[in-house]
Every structure is written in structure tokens, then in C-alpha cells.
Amino acid sequence: MKKFNIAYLVSTGIITAFMLMSTGMYFFNHAEVSKVFTTLGYPTYIIYPLAIAKLLGLIAIWTNKSKSLKEWAYAGFFFDFILAFFAHYMINDGEQFPALVALLLLAISYFTWKKLK
User: Fold this and answer.
1) Contact status, residue 15 vs residue 102, Cβ threshold 8 Å
2) What are phi and psi of 65, to 5 degrees?
3) Do residues 70 and 60 lie in contact, with contact meaning Cβ atoms separated by under 8 Å?
4) pTM for the structure as a whole
5) What's the rounded Cα separation, in Å, for the pair 73 and 102?
6) Do 32 and 25 contact (CB within 8 A), yes or no?
7) Count of domains in the chain?
8) What is the pLDDT of residues 36-89, one digit of tens each?
9) Residues of the chain with pLDDT > 90: what percent?
């Protein structure tokens, strides 16, 4: 049980670091992020709502207040990582690897959380 707890904490911690770094970029380097979103084919008006959704998802995952809210947060991150992967893959910029790593860490976090319940 201890190895699952360590795997959960490490994977969730790294995902949290990824999400906090991207959220920081969304808020504090909006011009650069806007260029990337335009290159990927996404509208720039979703940058701030996506940043807020990422922060709320992290809160839902770490607080354990509601099981269904936590499930929705994991689902939201799953879709975010899948869309990021395919967006980078489709424009062939070579930046899809971080999305795959995040997806793998998300799977580890989710399944170890389920095992710990």
C-alpha cells in the first residue's frame, strides 16, 4: 500500500507542477501563449478560462472533498492532454512528448488513487 501512496503523491505532484507552470504562463506570458494557441489552431479567448479550469482541477484533486468532482477533474486533464498531444502532433512541431508524459503521469495518479480508495 505504501508504494501506491508514493506513486500517487509523486505522479500527482509532477502533474501539479506541470499545471502550475502552464497556468503561470497563461496568466503572465499571455502574448507568447496566444501565438502558440494560434499556431495550434485554437482560439485565444480560451486561454484564461483554461487556466482557471486547471487551477480548479488541481484543487479538486488535492482536496478530496467530492469523489465525483475529482473524477471530473481527472477527465478534464485527460482531455486537455489528449488535445495538446494531437494539436502538436498535427502541426508536427515535435512538442507532443510533454503531453504524453503528462498523460502517463495522469494515468498513474488516477489508477493509484483508485487503488488507495
Assistant:
1) yes
2) -75, -40
3) yes
4) 0.91
5) 14
6) yes
7) 1
8) 999 988 999 999 999 999 999 999 999 988 999 999 999 999 999 999 999 999
9) 90
